Amino acid sequence: LAKTTQPISMDSYEGQEVNITCSHNNIATNDYITWYQQFPSQGPRFIIQGYKTKVTNEVASLFIPADRKSSTLSLPRVSLSDTAVYYCLVGDHYGQNFVFGPGTRLSVLP
Amino acid sequence: GAVVSQHPSWVICKSGTSVKIECRSLDFQATTMFWYRQFPKQSLMLMATSNEGSKATYEQGVEKDKFLINHASLTLSTLTVTSAHPEDSSFYICSARVRDLTSRYEQYFGPGTRLTVT
Prior knowledge:
Chain A has strands at residues 9-13, 18-23, 32-38, 45-50, 53-56, 61-64, 70-75, 84-91, 104-109. Chain A is mainly beta. Chain B is mostly beta strands. In chain B, the strands form two sheets. In chain B, strands 2, 4, 5, 6, 9, 10 and 11 form a seven-stranded mixed β-sheet that branches. A four-stranded antiparallel β-sheet of chain B has the order 1-3-8-7, with no helix packed on it. The relative contact order of chain B is 0.33. The chains are: A mainly beta, B mainly beta. Chains A and B meet through strand 3 and strand 4 of A and strand 4, strand 5, strand 9 and strand 10 of B.
């Protein structure tokens, strides 16, 4: 199973761009990279998923270098409501082997 | 997007009793569902994989006789915590696996169930 490493916590201010980097040195060829957001006492919510290069949706961007050993979640202009825990997961095509790491606790300050 | 519900959202029970938690896929069918447990300030820990019509696959260290999983239909999986003890108090989250148009699988998570055993 591909293990992931993320910073335990990050602080930011409203309106800033936040970049959270995840390391996954032993990622397999079939593995995709998926990011989830979790608020207290709620289930994780899907943010974005990618395989290589850059993926962008309405809430975030995901940057994946050519070697795929890391990925960076970019949240543009965060607000207080973006305060949450963000998880980076690496899993295969069949959605198996999804192992949650400790996640990154993002605190957005006014 | 795909919606997964859980019932109840929270439950309090006495030590020694059993509690059943339901996980439903509301607008899609899921042949595979997953059950997670999350303690305060900790990450999600996969407990078991539930496949419709077959026995669940439990992760190492999870007692299958204590955490009974039934996936009798394509839209419902249940987790029964038998003879609950205070140390079973936790946040239980289910997810359902969905196959998208590119044949890639995604997981959609339920809102979770807070179990407190007194």
